[in-house]
Amino acid sequence: NLTDRLSQLVKTMRGQARITESNVQEMLREVRMALLEADVALPVVRDFIARVKDKALGQEVVGSLNPGQVLVSVVHKELAATMGEGVADINLAAQPPAVILMAGLQGAGKTTTTAKLAKHLIEKRKKKVLTVSADVYRPAAIEQLKTVTRQAGAEWFASTPEQKPHDIAVAAIDYAKRHYFDVLLVDTAGRLAIDEALMAEIRDLHGVLNPVETLFVVDAMQGQDAVNTAKAFKEALPLTGVILTKLDGDSRGGAALSVRQITGAPIKFAGVSEKIDGLEVFDAERHAGRVLGMGDIVALVEEVTKGVDLAAAEKLAGKLKSGSGFDLNDFLAQISQMKKMGGLSSLMDKLPAQMTAKAGAADMDNAERDMKRMEGILSAMTAKERANPKLLLDGKSKASRKKRIAQGAGVQVQEVNRVLNQYDQMAGMMKKMSGGGMMKMMKKLGG
Ligand code: GDP
Ligand code: MG
């Protein structure tokens, strides 16, 4: 309920200004769960949590955020940094044709992505692009590349299932050179699982082609299995980049973290639909939010600092210092402050699902309604009453005053009493805080 939330707010303000060994443990457990739920592989999660713990310890807690929220923000940043480190487009710094080798399991999306990349390089980089298929095991695979290459507006180099992948590579390079192609994209065969023959073949292709980019194409829906696949391909080939496909699916995309960690190669693009234009530059920041299953924590941080009125906070701090106390005007100001931040439910929307799961929608609605009703009751008081809560708490005419307020706010007298009780509790807690500490806290609140 609201009392809990307000006292929580105060506890937060007064208490933990840092993330410590003791408060970090429980929160990290939540993060660990979020990552596992997103299908990040366990060893990768362990490594990651250890790194986050190092970074989080001693981190200052800004504004009215609590340590949990700050930790999530640290996690978010670390996730984005781990998966991102700047934007990495396709490297074409090679004697033309710049060769791009596509590697990955069958069904990962290599053929589709080859065409998507061709389109990208034609449209965004103004390159003359040739594609070729070295997938000689399934005749349909060569035809498939032909079809999607047409859609991309690139040129397709014919190959047949009777040829050896090695010979196809040599012929394609020769053709690309003679026809002045800037880029040659080589689609390869994948198997349903890693096998040694496949790895030997792609290693051989790599040797002949000497590609400037060796891209590992991996299905985001693969989850935990992505780790083993990534390991096998990393051992076989010097990977220069990763393309994460099927991010339009409903996976949380934890594979991104695993694959990035295991291959050490940057995630360059993300596949976001079956269509030829369904390729996006990988946005690590945004993806970090998805992996954690949270709304935009950064927006929350900004909103919290924006919503706090520094002048009002300083006035309150000054009052406390001079001993004039926390009155009902201050209480009303606090409630308005929370409303300015977009209300409770808007704040909750910005927190990770894991953190808000306990507070159901009904709870939130109740809290919002409570807050509105409290505001109504406080507004029905006269300015004099708000400045002198004693008039309502133990004044001679307190009963008739409360009755008048209840009528004005359209509530029962018990409700007025409830608000006064809540105020009283809060004022008590406020009194316990030292003036100096409060001032510092308020300064911080103002950003
Ligand atoms: P390959 O065996 O690695 O060459 O994989 P394909 O390119 O043939 O793709 C396998 C399936 O995944 C096809 O049905 C594609 O349409 C589909 N696919 C590939 N990339 C994406 C993507 O980013 N999103 C969605 N939804 N489907 C994709
Ligand atoms: Mg294919």
UniProtKB/TrEMBL annotation:
Matches recorded under PROSITE patterns: SRP54
SMART domains: AAA (SM00382), SRP54 (SM00962), SRP54_N (SM00963)
Keyword terms: Cytoplasm, GTP-binding, Hydrolase, Nucleotide-binding, Ribonucleoprotein, RNA-binding, Signal recognition particle
Keyword set includes Cytoplasm: yes
Its EC number(s): 3.6.5.4
Record carries keyword Lipid biosynthesis: no
Gene3D superfamilies: P-loop containing nucleotide triphosphate hydrolases, Signal recognition particle SRP54, nucleotide-binding domain, Signal recognition particle, SRP54 subunit, M-domain
Reaction(s) this enzyme catalyzes, per UniProt: GTP + H2O = GDP + phosphate + H(+)
Protein location: Cytoplasm
Residue ranges of domain SRP54-type proteins GTP-binding in the record: 266-279
CDD domains: SRP_G (cd18539)
Positions bound to GTP: 104-111, 187-191, 245-248
Principal localisation: cytoplasm
Family according to the record: Belongs to the GTP-binding SRP family. SRP54 subfamily.
Subunit architecture: Part of the signal recognition particle protein translocation system, which is composed of SRP and FtsY. SRP is a ribonucleoprotein composed of Ffh and a 4.5S RNA molecule.
Domain notes: Composed of three domains: the N-terminal N domain, which is responsible for interactions with the ribosome, the central G domain, which binds GTP, and the C-terminal M domain, which binds the RNA and the signal sequence of the RNC.
Annotated function: Involved in targeting and insertion of nascent membrane proteins into the cytoplasmic membrane. Binds to the hydrophobic signal sequence of the ribosome-nascent chain (RNC) as it emerges from the ribosomes. The SRP-RNC complex is then targeted to the cytoplasmic membrane where it interacts with the SRP receptor FtsY. Interaction with FtsY leads to the transfer of the RNC complex to the Sec translocase for insertion into the membrane, the hydrolysis of GTP by both Ffh and FtsY, and the dissociation of the SRP-FtsY complex into the individual components.
Protein name, UniProt field: Signal recognition particle protein
Natural source organism: Roseateles violae
